[in-house]
Design goal:
- There is one protein chain.
- This protein is an alpha+beta fold.
- The protein has a four-stranded antiparallel sheet with strand order 2-3-1-4, with helices on both faces.
- Bound molecules: adenosine-3',5'-cyclic-monophosphate.
Length: 142
C-alpha cells in the first residue's frame, strides 16, 4: 500500500480537555507519523475558508463559532494508506455512532464537538494541508 499524507486537526474541545497527548499517541501507536504540527487559534476567515464546502449547511455558523472558540492543533500525518487509516482511527463523525475504541467514541462530546478532523480523500488532503502548511514546514523522519 502507498505511503500517503493526510491532514488532521485536534479540535478546540479536545485541546481544552488536555487530550493532545492521548490523541497523538493513538496516531503514533497505529503507524501514523506526525510530519508537521502547529497550534493555531483559527480566525473567522481561516475557519470559514477551511470549511467552505459546508457553507450552505445549517451547522456552518455554529461550526465556525466552535472552531474559533479556542486553540486547535493542526498536523500532517504520514503512513500507509494514511487517509483511510486515520478515518478508521477517528470513527464516524457523530461520536454516538462511532465504533468502540475510536478517537471520537472515546473523546468526542457531540456531533459538532467531535474532537478531531481528518481529510476524506487525496484531493481534500492536498487542499487542507496547503491551507495551513508550506512545504518547508514538513519534516519526515522516514
Ligand atoms: P468534520 O469531520 O471536521 O467535518 C465537518 C464538521 O462539521 C464535523 O466534523 C463536525 O464537527 C461538524 N458538524 C456539525 N453538525 C454536523 C452535521 N449535521 N453533519 C456533519 N458534520 C457536522
Amino acid at each position: 500500500m502507498a505511503i500517503e499524507r493526510t491532514f488532521s486537526i485536534i479540535k478546540p474541545d479536545a485541546v481544552k480537555r488536555d487530550l493532545i497527548g492521548k490523541i497523538c499517541s493513538r496516531f503514533e501507536t497505529n503507524g501514523l507519523r506526525i510530519v508537521a504540527m502547529r497550534m493555531v487559534h483559527m480566525s473567522r476567515r481561516e475557519a470559514e475558508g477551511f470549511y467552505a464546502v459546508h457553507r450552505e449547511r445549517p451547522f456552518f455558523k455554529s461550526l465556525c463559532d466552535y472552531m474559533t472558540s479556542g486553540p486547535s492543533l493542526v498536523m500532517i500525518l504520514e503512513g500507509e494508506d494514511a487517509i483511510a487509516h486515520n478515518r478508521k482511527l477517528m470513527g464516524a463523525t457523530d461520536p454516538a455512532k462511532a465504533d468502540k475504541e475510536t478517537i471520537r467514541a472515546d473523546f468526542g462530546e457531540s456531533l459538532e464537538r467531535n474532537s478531531v478532523h481528518g481529510s476524506d480523500a487525496p484531493a481534500t488532503a492536498a487542499t487542507e494541508i496547503a491551507w495551513f502548511f508550506a512545504a518547508s514546514d514538513i519534516h519526515s523522519a522516514r
